[in-house]
Amino acid sequence: MNIGNAIVSTFTNQGIVSAITSTIFIILLGFYLRKKGTFGPDFGKVLTKVVLAVAIAALSFNSFMQPIDDESMHQGLGILLWGFIIYIILIFVAPLLYSRKNMDKREVMGILTTFGSTTFFGIPIVGAIYGAKGVLYSSIFNIGYRIFLYSYAYIKMSGLKMEKENIKKMFLNPIVIATLVGFVLWLIQGVMPQVTVPLMKNGVAAGGMTTVAFYRIDQTAIWLWKPLNYLASLASPLAWLAIGCTLGSISLKDAISNKLAWYYSFNKVILVPLLNLVLLLILDVTHIMPMNYVAIATVVIMMATPTATVAAAYAISYDREALLTSNASLLSTVSAVVMMPIWIAILGILSSAGIFH
């Protein structure tokens, strides 16, 4: 398929188009309701807490309630490995993008460039476009992200050694628990006690019988899977409303005049995902680490996210370029909202052109 046909195919794909429009429209709705005063100044923070503590935890766990086969295991382990490799690469490479700045700016901007809002911004978008498989891959990818975010980023920003409190944050976070438990259950389902039950698809009887591990609640305990699924379905709309609400609460005027914040935003939402795309395509073509379309697209979208909230909080808490961090966070969020549909379209075009398998 030539590029022209691939472009037409992508922009006539109702799944891709509706995912893009849903993201934009709901973010704009949050922005409008905040500007109008319907949402109060703290409403975005409340929504964020609900999304992170409940919705994405449920989404992450439920994403592992699916069969495992050779391809999904291979892709999942590849994503897990890449999640560690890319952060090690970025830890060394990202500060070089700011080599003309003083050491403090170089260090802070390097960390902000390395760590994006993959959980809050990335997973809801991946789930909306690529479904359960995308959420599965994004949850696995985030294992390496969270380890480095709560260890390396904290130590560099604070100037302190790893503290007990931060280790607790790393492992007792609801999303981390849901991801690790779900990942282990997904991996070992083939060797666990099996039960034969009526086949269910999206909570509805699909006819026939299936044999699954006893804890596959999507098949064996619909009464438990359903409420988790309802909570999981809140992740995308609530996250997008919160993003719009946050943008509606902050003045763009000061941030727009900051050239370094613009340069950072370019690096964060264009350069970093482009680096991932190029490297993953090379690894795929050379068969060093073959990955399919959904796996590669998931990583690219996760890396095209704006500043990680936790990384920004570190910078502000320890007074490490706090004003610059706030401006960079705001501009990168606006840039990510603009660029995300473009990245989704580019990935769709590459897939339609047969570049992905």
From TrEMBL:
Gene Ontology cellular component annotations, sorted alphabetically: membrane
Name of the protein: Malate permease
Lipid bilayer topology: Multi-pass membrane protein
Domain of life: Bacteria
InterPro entries membership: Mem_transp_PIN-like
Transmembrane segments: 15-34, 46-65, 77-98, 110-130, 136-155, 171-189, 227-250, 262-282, 294-316, 336-356
UniProt keyword list: Cell membrane, Membrane, Transmembrane, Transmembrane helix, Transport
Localization annotation: Membrane
UniProt keyword Ribonucleoprotein present: no
One Pfam short name: Mem_trans
Cell membrane in keyword set: yes
Organism for this UniProt entry: Limosilactobacillus reuteri
One GO term (biological process): transmembrane transport
